[in-house]
Amino acid sequence: MDPKRILLVEDDEFLRDVYQEVLSAEGFSITVAADGNTALEKVKQGNWDLILMDFYIPQLSGIDIVNQIQHLSPSPAKKIVFLTNVSDEKDLNQMATLGNDYLIKSDLTPQQLVEKVKSYLSN
After folding, report:
1. 43: nearest Cα among 54, 31, 55
2. How many helices, marked H, and strands, marked E, lie in the chain?
3. How many whole angstroms separate alpha carbon 40 and alpha carbon 53?
4. Beta-bridge partner residues of 55
5. Given CA atoms 69, 74, 77, 82 in this order, what sign does their dihedral have?
6. What is the bridge-based pairing of β-strands 80-84 and 29-33?
7. ω before 3 within 30° of 0 (cis)?
8. DSSP-derived secondary structure letter, 86
9. Directed axis angle between helix 13-25 and helix 110-122, to 10°?
10. CA 39 to chain centroid
11. Would you tell me how many other CB atoms lie within 10 Å of the CB of residue 112?
12. Cα distance from N-terminal residue to C-terminal residue, the chain
């Protein structure tokens, strides 16, 4: 069985490296993007099992990218989960509406990320 394909969009180099390392160690195929333009190009390549999308990234925000890809057919991703440290209720509601879920990075250990990703991919 082919490994699940995950696009990790995160501009923080440390977090990107940690997330990529722990998810790769679990056997997932990880592709990374550090900015909005790169992320949009990779998203359009399609067939992602999961996109982990940082809310605030340079060039295009995660919301901008998700808004653009919602009009693509077929959808380039089975699931989209936002990564954020935002606490604004309006932004959180927008993420919950546009994506399948959101995760608060400051509350998330690498092992919890792995557990969450496994649960998203099993549904």
Report:
1. 31
2. 5, 5
3. 11
4. none
5. positive
6. unpaired
7. no
8. -
9. 60
10. 10
11. 11
12. 17
How long is the chain? Answer: 123
| Pairing, β 50-54 against β 5-9 | parallel
Q: Which two tokens stand for residue 3?
A: 């490994």
Query: Are residues 49 and 7 in contact, defined by beta-carbon separation less than 8 angstroms?
Result: no
- Residue 123, token pair as written in the block: 């549904």
Name the burial class of residue 99, with classes exposed (0-12), middle (13-18) and buried (19+) by CB atoms within 10 angstroms of its CB. Answer: buried
Q: What is the pLDDT of residues 52-111, one digit of tens each?
A: 999 989 998 888 888 888 877 777 888 999 999 988 888 888 888 888 899 999 999 999
Tokens 């990529």 sit at which residue? 20
Spell 52-65 as b/e; 16+ CB within 10 A means b.
bbbbebeebebbeb
Does the pTM exceed 0.90?
yes
